[in-house]
Specification:
single chain; about 375 residues; alpha+beta; 6-stranded antiparallel β-barrel; 26 strands; about 20% helix; bacterial flagellum
């Protein structure tokens, strides 16, 4: 079949359109900061979707002589007496002489929307002078919330991650034997009512409050919904009015919104941990022109005692120890004054400090001095 001129024109038009589309896609991929963006679900919390803390007091039995000292008459003895009385046993004070019982506190986190009959993990921690919970069994323990209501009941074999053993002269301890866990050790007995489908407004709480980030979240949601249903009310809260298209389907709305990506903003901040010497700097840290010099006076004193003794077969002289002291003074003469130019980036600033041979401890002092001089455009937070 012969190729006509009209066929050639149509071929080149299609090829040109395809190359143009490919070029546009390359530009969009190059311009979009994919690595810097984050999903909304990773930077916010949905109001009402949270865990609830539970706590309870119970007894662990079956310990191999590592329980509380009941003879002293503290709360473990009273709790054991009360438990036995409920079971129809009337013990005497002389009969309560066991080292196999320990009083414990039981804690758990009740996840949001947990249904009745589901199970949660619990943590068991010794409350008295027990040495170890290894091999113990937690008796039925009600777990209460902040309102005093029982939301779960825990019981089961405790799993201890550590141990302690030893003799008269030495003791070996690994981990914390007085703390244990019970996987799926509590059964939920009461549900926390929370109906999302009837909600007319939804609030998003930013984990790192920021005006710019809150506005970007609202703009991304409005662009997705095609309406102005979202607006930031403060740096940590974004309020969403449920659109009519999602009426009665708030779960679907949250699913669609949490997958949207935005670029979080942050203030220029430097975090300093004085105890460990850890320094964390944000990427927006900037400095004005400043000159930095750092020098230390180091004095090193080394004692090298030597033994002086008389020659062989000598009738005079005694063997004695002669002190030899070596003193070295380093005044930091090799340290030079370094100039940091205006508006340098974080990488350039770190490189300048590293060029001076400055360690983390001295860097903390320098950062605080630069901040005091007004040349550091960042917030310093000391932990």
């Amino acid at each position: 079949m012969p190729i006509t001129a009209q066929t050639r024109v149509m071929f080149w038009q299609a090829l040109s359109a395809g190359l143009a589309s490919l070029f546009i896609l390359i530009l969009l991929a190059w311009a979009s900061p994919a690595n810097a963006s984050s999903r909304i679900k990773d930077i916010v919390d949905f109001e009402g979707v949270r865990d609830n803390m539970l706590v309870g007091y119970g007894l662990v039995v079956g310990l191999n002589g590592t329980g509380d000292s009941i003879k002293t008459g503290h709360f473990t003895k009273q709790s054991l007496q009360a438990m036995l009385n409920r079971l129809g046993v009337k013990p005497t004070d002389a009969g309560l002489d066991s080292k196999n019982v320990a009083a414990v506190m039981v804690t758990a986190a009740l996840p949001a929307f947990s249904s009745k009959g589901s199970r949660v993990d619990v943590t068991v921690s010794a409350l008295g002078d027990s040495k170890s919970l290894l091999g113990g069994t937690l008796l039925v323990t009600p777990l209460m919330g902040a309102d005093g209501e029982v939301y779960a009941v825990s019981q089961g074999q405790v799993a201890v991650g550590g141990f302690t053993t030893g003799g008269a002269a030495e003791t070996v301890t690994k981990g914390v034997p007085t703390s244990a866990r019970i996987a799926n050790g509590a059964i939920v007995e009461r549900e926390i009512a929370f109906d999302m489908d009837t909600m007319k407004n939804v609030k998003l709480s930013l984990r790192n409050p920021d005006f710019t980030t809150a506005r970007r979240i609202a703009e991304a949601i409005n662009a997705f919904l095609g309406t102005t249903a979202s607006q930031p009310t403060d740096p940590s809260t974004v309020q969403i009015q449920v659109p009519l298209a999602y009426s009665g389907q708030v779960v679907n709305l949250m699913t669609d919104i949490e997958q949207l990506r935005i670029e979080p903003d942050q203030i220029a901040r430097i975090i300093i941990d004085e105890q460990s010497g850890v320094i964390v700097m944000g990427e927006n840290v900037r400095l004005s022109t400043v000159a930095i010099a750092q020098g230390n006076l180091t004095i090193r004193i080394t004692e090298t005692p030597q033994v002086s003794q008389p020659g062989p077969f000598s009738q005079t002289g005694t063997t004695t120890t002669v002190n030899r002291t070596n003193v070295q003074v380093d005044q930091g003469g090799d340290k030079q004054l370094a100039v940091v130019q205006n508006g340098v980036s974080l990488q350039e600033f770190v490189n300048s400090l590293n060029a001076l041979g400055i360690g983390p401890r001295d860097m903390i002092t320098i950062l605080q001095a630069v901040k005091a001089a007004g040349a550091l455009q960042a917030e310093i937070e000391v932990m």
